[in-house]
Amino acid sequence: MKPEHHAGGRQADQELLNTAVRENMARIKHKIIVMSGKGGVGKSTLATNLAFGLGLNGYKIGLMDTDIHGPSLGKMLGIEGQVLIPSPSGHGLIPIEVKGMKVVTMASLLQDPDAPVIWRGPLKMGAIKQFLGEIEWGDLDYLVIDSPPGTGDEPLSVCQLIPEADGSVIVTTPQDVALIDSRKAVRFSQVLKIPVLGIVENMSGLVCPHCGQPIDLFKIGGGERAAQSMNVPFLGRIPIDPDIVESCDDGHSYIYEHAEAPAAKAMQAIVAQIIEKTDRK
Ligand SMILES: Nc1ncnc2c1ncn2[C@@H]1O[C@H](COP(=O)(O)OP(=O)(O)OP(=O)(O)O)[C@@H](O)[C@H]1O
Ligand SMILES: [Mg+2]
Questions:
Q1: CB–CB of 116/8 below 8 Å?
Q2: Can you tell me the distance from the alpha carbon of 115 to that of 112, in angstroms, rounded to the nearest whole number?
Q3: SS3 per residue for 102-124
Q4: What structural domains does the chain harbor?
């Protein structure tokens, strides 16, 4: 075959995939992208608990991890080692079910979770396109999308592939350095015309288990100030709770299993605002 035929064939494949992405996404009412300017601020924790929280409100949920280099949702959801299987129709792959939620993470495509993925931008875009187009998501109310830290290829691909997304949720911690980065994430979302649903300040204070007094480990209130200065909504602050670390490590649903804890209540309030801004607007 001549090279141009190859190229033409590839282009036709791409167009099929683009159509599959559009058709799949049209069956999902709302898409929410969780992102941050900085690593380790709690995006995956929030994405997982948002997804569980929306599910507890009766919605049908999908959760997708686009963190190609460091997918962590598999561990957080206790589905490490489970791989996606082809659907009986042969047209796609079936997401993994966790408590009624449809989950896809890069780790569910990799046989060896410890193997580093060495991919450049276009390949990442291709992988995310396949996640959106070749996974049988079915009819869903919400797809929550977790991103790796920063404003790189993965969130860029997601924003470009789902231009109709309801919006982004930007996670930050209260320190000044994290806030500078969260401003970048706000700008990134705005430049890509994805509405900013709001900023969440995570790891915002800790209640001393001995005396019950609050300790502002990373200061407090910065997320709200950043939201005000960028003129975007502030969705709330989530305190530090060692049970969150435990739940993340054990594949448990924190928002459900510790429903009475202040951090879970803060998450529930964030879920309620997201429903208000997307489904009830
Ligand atoms: N409010 C909190 N209280 C206590 N621990 C928390 C809280 N939020 C997140 N964590 C813990 O902090 C660690 C980092 O969280 P997480 O993996 O969600 O961050 P991330 O932003 O997704 O990181 P990355 O940028 O690497 O993707 C995890 O061990 C998680 O359990
Ligand atoms: Mg993460």
A1: no
A2: 6
A3: EEEEHHHCCCCCCCCCCCCHHHH
A4: 30-278 (3.40.50.300)
Q: What residues form DSSP beta bridges with 202?
A: 238
Q: Which range has the worst mean pLDDT, 32-41, 54-63, 84-93, 227-236?
A: 84-93
**Global confidence as pTM:** 0.92
What are the tokens at 197? 């649903």
pLDDT tens-place string over residues 23-72: 999 999 999 999 999 899 999 999 999 999 999 999 999 999 998 877 78
Beta partners for residue 167, in sequence order:
32
The alpha carbon of 268 is separated from its chain's Cα centroid by a whole number of angstroms, namely: 17
C-alpha 137/C-alpha 25 separation (Å) is 9
Buried/exposed 7-17: b ≥16 CB within 10 Å, e otherwise: eeeeeeeeeeb
How far apart (Å, rounded) are the C-alpha atoms in residues 164 and 242?
37
Alpha carbon distances (Å) from 2 to 7, 14, 83: 9, 19, 37
Distance CA 142, CA 197 (A): 14
C-alpha to C-alpha distance for 148 and 65, rounded to whole angstroms: 8
Tokens found for residue 32: 């929410």
Cα dihedral sign, 235-236-242-243: negative
| CB neighbours of residue 251 within 10 Å | 16
Ligand 1 cavity residues, CB under 6 Å:
36, 39-45, 67, 70, 72, 148-149, 202-203, 238, 240-241, 244-245, 248, 263
Q: Which atom of ligand 1 is nearest to the CA of 202?
A: 1
